[in-house]
From TrEMBL:
GO terms for biological process: negative regulation of DNA-templated transcription. The keyword NAD does not apply. Keywords: DNA-binding, Transcription, Transcription regulation. This is IclR family transcriptional regulator. Residues 5-65 form the HTH iclR-type domain. InterPro entries: GAF-like_dom_sf, HTH_MetabolicPath_Reg, Tscrpt_reg_IclR_C, Tscrpt_reg_IclR_N, WH-like_DNA-bd_sf, WH_DNA-bd_sf. One of its GO terms (molecular function) is DNA-binding transcription factor activity. The lineage of its organism: Bacteria, Bacillati, Actinomycetota, Actinomycetes, Pseudonocardiales. Residues 59-255 form the IclR-ED domain. It comes from the Bacteria. It comes from Pseudonocardia broussonetiae. The keyword Transcription regulation applies.
Length: 255
């Protein structure tokens, strides 16, 4: 009985560790928890069988489907709650709508938002979702995924167009996602809806992948767009505000 309880305790420690840190190797898990590698391997094999953990092609481990859905939902809900005062401040500073979004399947879902008190604005649409390939939030969050993981989210080679500006192919999406990951932000200029502009940055965990994204959205007529990867003066101001707000949310999430 004592040995069984010890195994349960060690398995829970592994799950807790993987909840805080994505993609750890067998050696990293064993070293961080002070468990022998052979014992760690046996525990991971059991957890993998029951889909509590998954093993990546690089042989590292992360939470599996049996754990990740509930853990991600809890993390996202906490992020939305912590972010709210920062959303209010960001909206007041920019006079544009601000959102917190998460990836849900192949979609970007709005889980929190604040909109300005002005006639011409983008609505918050909390609880609604748009295809991830047509959203700035979706693109910046997909930048943290592997190509294989994006294949699972969006298996079709051709992407569903929402406007004339929507990316149509996986090749075009991969190029834009790579750019978003390199620059640390993503844009959407009329890709999900004509006349709507959005700029998104990730909200990151201390270690691992982003929890969610932070987006500023407004009428495209009000926000000049820079050429290529360049930002206009207005975009540069908005990006600076976004990054400051995201950093403030991340700091609050650590406590």
């Amino acid at each position: 009985m004592a040995e069984t309880l010890q195994s349960v305790h060690q398995a829970l420690r592994i799950l807790t560790l993987l909840r805080r840190h994505d993609d750890l190797t067998l050696t990293e898990i064993a070293d961080r928890l002070g468990i022998g590698k052979s014992s760690t391997y046996r525990l991971l094999a059991t957890l993998k069988t029951d889909r509590y953990v998954d093993q990546t092609p690089a042989r590292s481990y992360r939470l599996g489907p049996a754990m990740s859905a509930s853990a991600e939902a809890e993390s996202a809900a906490h992020c939305a709650e912590v972010a709210h005062p920062h959303l209010v401040a960001l909206c007041a500073a920019t006079q544009e709508t601000v959102h917190v979004s998460v990836l849900s399947g192949g979609h970007s879902e709005y889980i929190a938002g604040v909109e300005p008190d002005r006639a011409l604005k983008v609505s918050t649409r909390l609880g609604s979702a748009v295809p991830a390939h047509a959203a700035a939030a979706g693109k910046i969050l997909m930048a943290a995924l592997t190509s294989r993981e994006r294949d699972l989210l969006l298996p079709a080679a051709e992407l569903t167009p929402l406007t004339d500006r929507t990316l149509r192919t996986r090749a075009a999406l991969e190029a834009e996602v790579e750019t978003a990951g390199r620059l640390g932000f993503a844009r959407n200029v009329g890709e999900s809806e004509d006349g709507v502009y959005a700029l998104a940055v990730p909200i990151r965990r201390p270690v691992g992948r982003p929890i969610c994204s932070l987006t500023i959205a407004g009428p495209a007529s009000r926000i000049e767009v820079g050429p290529g990867e360049e930002l206009s003066a207005r975009e540069a101001v908005l990006l600076g505000r976004l990054r400051e707000a995201a950093a403030a949310v991340e700091a609050d999430l650590r406590y």
